[in-house]
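The following block was generated as part of the benchmark described in Methods. Ligand: fructose -6-phosphate.
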Amino acid sequence: EKDGYAHYMEKEIYEQPRALRNTMTGRIDEAGQKVVFPDLQLPAETIRSIEKIYIVACGTAYHAGLIGKHVIESLARIPVEVDVASEFRYRRPLFGPNTLTIAVSQSGETADTLAAMREAKRNGSVVLAITNVVGSSIAREADEVITTNAGPEIAVASTKAYTSQLIAFYLWGMYLAQEKAALAPAEIASLIQSLQQLPGQVEDILAHAQQLRQFAEAIKDERHLFFIGRGIDHAVSMEGSLKLKEISYIHSEAYAAGELKHGTLALIEEGTRVVALSTQDALHEKMISNITEVKARGANVLGITHEDHVDLHRSVDDVCLIPKTDALFTPVLAVIPLQLIAYYTSVVLGNDVDRPRNLAKSVTVE
Ligand code: F6R
């Protein structure tokens, strides 16, 4: 059932191109011009009147939510707050008459996420679930559901569910922008075109996976690492750091690259490993300065960037190149090397990759 792969996690990493295509299926019109959601009942009027959005989720799904915020704010210009589900109820969140709450959950059974969405419903908010499991508790209790259709995810460390959640957010952000006329039809069509290229681009990255096996060998004895990035790259760094922690048991921290100099830079010493993401053209120069700051303190840096920034070679020790895409879509590509780093590190350390210690696939207690 692992189809020749050594672990479910490896199989699920390689299933991503298909999972992403499945999340898109039926949600783009035949001409490739518009996003459609045939299974959503939300009246157009309700969609146009949304004034604020809460995203509630845990762990990896929360990290997808952080990207979702960037996407929705930038495409549809609606303010979005992202909350860790276990915190949401206890901070007395403010709901207006036109607040939409989005609950994100692979399993659809996470107790914290369920409790957060019930709190939203109690406050009169419409709840939209993004989930991978049809008929799950979260799917049943939500007003509307977008299923990710990634197929069953067995490994505890989430991979294809995360990238499928990102696709769901892209489609939803584009749909809001389209219904609110926040973007011109030509802009939507061009985004759709880039979106449809992502599965093939993920295949290209997976074809060069071996490069990251060497990196895993190099970091397996480290006590701690840093992942740095700006904007959505920071959110992707958080996911890369979580993945590495949960299956390799090596401590790491994700940092907004510009924030390092406000304290954390003190932890960088000769040989400290840093994974630096620079996928955003508008932030690339700033990232180079931040990389120079850690290099000056002796860090050993792996840079992850796209093909136009091959010049990054001059500033780092190693470069991992990903294909070029629209600035908002880079997380789908940038996370793949991070998943592979976590996977290979866990393998070389001889850990139980699919069932890491202390963790359960579905967390049904609060
Ligand atoms: C990490 C991981 C967890 C889950 C979290 C939420 O790889 O799998 O952080 O993402 O427990 O689970 P779901 O999405 O099922 O609500």
